[in-house]
Design a protein that fits this description.
CATH topology of the largest domain: Spore Coat Polysaccharide Biosynthesis Protein SpsA, Chain A
Number of helices: 11
Protein name: Glycosyltransferase family 2 protein
Strand content: 5-15%
GO molecular function, one term: transferase activity
CATH superfamily of the largest domain: Spore Coat Polysaccharide Biosynthesis Protein SpsA, Chain A
Order of helices and strands: EHEHEHEHEHEHHEHHHH
Structural class: alpha/beta
Keywords: Membrane, Transferase, Transmembrane, Transmembrane helix
Organism: Phenylobacterium hankyongense
Helix content: 40-55%
CATH class of the largest domain: Alpha Beta
Length: 325
């Protein structure tokens, strides 16, 4: 069990975070993400915990790039479950046991915190963050296919090392979209994701996230991931009844709208539409909407339920035995 802590302007809190690491944690990887405050040097000079390992990045890569670098180092040193926490002391490390339990029990490949499981958990969260996280959560459900999770931007996460090794080879977003984009790529692997309830914590830390600057880029990335997911999941890697419902639903809706537009463009001035014309336009739209709702229902029920890491571990063990024989 290893902790991965991206470090960027967290000198005021990082030693507190390290000190709170449970005794059963095997190692702590602190990633200096080209921090202008010299976080790496500060940690090496002041952290007395022998479990601490400092990784320095020559260029700032964002929270995603720093986390991936930490995953790589922790996995190289033998970590089997990798827990990512922020260095600003917003996360209660007393919840790590609950976070890693689904992975250790073989019930999940990836676990993440969810601050929205109880109203009492949200008392310390600013109202604008509550609204923003709710909106981002719905968008993430659509784009990732994980309809069973909430609070996608929560950075308190745990991942099985074999799954992390595969994810590290993918083009996961390196900046603030990292957590959500990681969920999308986990979805392409059919990995099982589990939410773990935990309260929000806010103190005197300063967030580097600016809501106005990320709304547009986030919306485009969600749209891109949704389109890629639907194409890959329902037309490339497999073909379900939902694939037929999607195609048929879009066809009927476009036909109905096109028929209505054609009638409006070609009718004589003042000519009223007959009941037949109205039904010829409305009925395909209604039928198409029903088909799309059926496809949506199939997608909601198609959330991965069988963890992939037992299979990956077995393959890795067999390959290692083959290499040494």
């Amino acid at each position: 069990m290893w902790l991965v802590i991206p470090c960027y302007r967290v000198k005021a809190h990082i030693l507190q975070v390290i000190a709170k690491a449970p005794s059963w944690i095997e190692g702590i990887v602190c990633v200096d993400d080209a921090c202008p405050d010299g976080s790496g040097d500060f940690i090496e000079a002041n952290a007395k915990d022998p479990r601490v390992v400092v990784v320095r990045l020559e260029q700032n890569q964002g929270v995603g790039g720093a986390t991936m670098a930490g995953y790589r180092e922790a996995a190289r040193r033998g970590g089997e479950v990798l827990v990512k926490v922020d260095g600003d002391d917003q996360m209660d490390l007393g919840n790590i046991a609950q976070l890693v339990a689904p992975i250790l029990l073989g019930e999940a490949d990836y676990a993440k915190g969810n601050r929205f499981t109880s109203i009492s958990h949200l008392r310390d969260m600013p109202s604008v963050r509550v609204f923003g996280n709710a909106a981002l959560s719905f968008a993430a459900k659509v784009s990732t296919g994980y309809w069973n999770i909430f609070d996608p931007t929560n950075g308190f996460t745990a991942i099985e090392a074999q799954v992390a090794r595969i994810v590290m080879e993918k083009r996961v977003s390196r900046r603030f979209f990292f957590e959500t984009d990681l969920l999308y790529h986990l979805g392409t692997l059919r990995a099982v994701v589990r939410d773990v309830p935990m309260p929000a914590r806010y103190a005197d830390e300063v967030s580097n996230l600016r809501i106005g600057a990320i709304v547009g880029p986030f919306a485009l990335k969600h749209l891109r991931n949704f389109a890629q997911r639907v194409l890959g999941q329902y037309f490339v890697r497999d073909f379900h009844v939902a694939s037929l419902e999607l195609v048929s639903g879009m066809f009927f809706i476009l036909f109905g709208l096109g028929y209505a537009a054609h009638y409006v463009a070609t009718r004589r001035p003042g000519q009223a539409a007959s009941a037949g014309v109205v039904m010829a336009a409305a009925l395909p739209v209604i039928l198409g909407a029903q088909l799309l709702l059926q496809a949506l229902n199939f997608d909601v029920l198609n959330v991965p339920t069988r963890p992939i890491h037992p299979y990956l571990r077995t393959v890795a063990r067999m390959e290692a035995e083959e290499a040494t024989s």
